[in-house]
Amino acid sequence: MTKLPEQIINAVRSAGVVGAGGAGFPTYVKLQAQVDIVIVNGAECEPLLNSDCAMILQHPDWLVEGLRLAMQTTGAKRGVIALKEYYTDQIDALKKVLPADGAIKLHLLENYYPAGDEFFIVYDVTGKIIPEGGIPLNVGAVVNNVATLMQVYQAANGKPVTERTVTLVGEFNEPKVVTVPIGTTYANLIKIAGGLTRDDVVLLDGGPMMGKIVDDWQEGIAKTTSGVLALPSDHFVVTMRQQTLSQAIKRSKSACCQCFRCSDLCPRNLLGHEIYPHLTMRSIDYNQAEPAKNITSAFLCSQCGVCELIACDSMQLSPRKIYAAYRKELVARGVKNPHIRTNVVANSEIDGRKISTITLLKKTDLAKYDIDINYEGVKTVKKVKISLHKHVGVPAIPNVVLGQKVRMCDIIAASPDDKLGSVYHASIEGKVTDISETLVEITA
Ligand code: SF4
Ligand code: SF4
């Protein structure tokens, strides 16, 4: 039976769907916007991750149906699935299930980084540039990633978010793509991937460009986890990620030659936003508080990592880290983003300066991990640790008690109804064996 838009939105909210490819913004909010176009981000932005590709091959119809539901709630007349042009198997699979009415089309992207950045994908698909400090809605678009829209489809069919398809790649004995319960620990993922090839390994939740170092391997994966990358502890990507802020500042003062390369390659600068990392580095080097825009432009940084890992790889300087610190401090001081230009024009060099993913992998010494990885289906685990705050909004509050038996899909925590947040469900059947304000552990 066809559902009304509000029924779909309520189902998505109750199912706990949050943006699976980013910070975990609650999807029910996005689906309430009224837009011209819904774009599926199928770019698999981070190199080495194959989770979205695997899911498309498994369930291309879920993606198309999820997109249709999103178009229905947002009133969008156009739906576009944007994916890389070399994903030929996925393109073939999708073509077989595209609706005949032509409302949903494929858009093929070149293989560059960051093709999956919301700002870039909107520009690539529509030719419109999201204003500084803006969101896709400002140009009549909503962007959702593949996993999110499949979860929208499942939510409309009564299934909450209880699992994630993740890529396990890098220094695992058996790299693979698997579907596991939310809250599966990183330690268990290592077992699922046949162990590690060496002792000195650092895990990143996510890909090499924007993934976060996992400090505690006994923690569980979140709804936003799309993959886990295992790298040697002395790998360039890891050492740059571990560089402290004071090291980044000292290095900048001693080594930044103001070559402009970070600004030349900065994707947001290429889209015409007023962000010039080399000028921000200069402000650090000479302790200049003025012009203030060299500092407040931190609000325009997407943290994509191009400046740190590609532009300045030989000097090993990190404008990204400086911007993250500036932004944190500005927010703490209550400073609002002053950069809100709307008449933004892309740099004429934008096409020539996109970073090919192949070049990126070579420059970052990651090419050896770029291998064909198979999808190996659903894996079960005996324990999950479900974090209740890994989404945008207020944390979810547990509604279970220690020792309580839970069945799969039972609600175990929820943010207050009147607040932005999410709902969490039991991802395995079992007993609650640990509980705190931020975590529910379930043991089978
Ligand atoms: S941070 Fe690196 S790339 Fe940027 S201006 Fe300085 S030396 Fe050049
Ligand atoms: S991380 Fe660097 S390259 Fe990426 S948007 Fe920020 S300043 Fe630009």
Describe it.
The protein has three domains: 5-156, 3-Layer(aba) Sandwich (Rossmann fold); 163-235, Ubiquitin-like (UB roll); 240-363, no CATH class. α3 runs parallel beside α5 and α4 (60-74) crosses α7 (146-156). It contains 18 helices and 19 strands. The strands form five sheets. It has a six-stranded mixed beta sheet with strand order 9-8-10-6-7-12, sandwiched between helices. The protein has a four-stranded parallel beta sheet with strand order 3-2-1-5, with helices on both faces. The two termini are 36 Å apart. It is α/β, with parallel strands linked by helices and 444 residues long. α5 links the parallel β2 (78-84) and β3. The structure holds iron/sulfur cluster (2 copies). One iron/sulfur cluster is lined by residues 266-268, 275, 277, 301-307, 319-320, 323.
Question: Which SSEs are present, and which pair or pack?
Answer:
Blueprint: H1 5-14, H2 27-30, E1 37-42, H3 51-58, H4 60-74, E2 78-84, H5 88-95, E3 104-109, E4 112-113, H6 118-126, E5 141-145, H7 146-156, E6 163-170, E7 176-181, H8 186-192, E8 201-205, E9 212-213, E10 227-232, H9 236-242, H10 245-255, H11 261-265, H12 267-270, H13 277-285, H14 293-296, H15 306-311, H16 319-332, H17 350-353, E11 355-356, H18 357-363, E12 375-378, E13 383-387, E14 397-398, E15 405-406, E16 411-414, E17 423-425, E18 430-435, E19 439-443
Parallel strand pairs: 1-2, 1-5, 2-3, 6-10, 7-12
Antiparallel strand pairs: 4-11, 6-7, 8-9, 8-10, 13-19, 14-16, 15-18, 16-17, 18-19
Bound molecules: iron/sulfur cluster (2 copies).
The site of one iron/sulfur cluster has 15 residues, from helix 11 and helix 13.
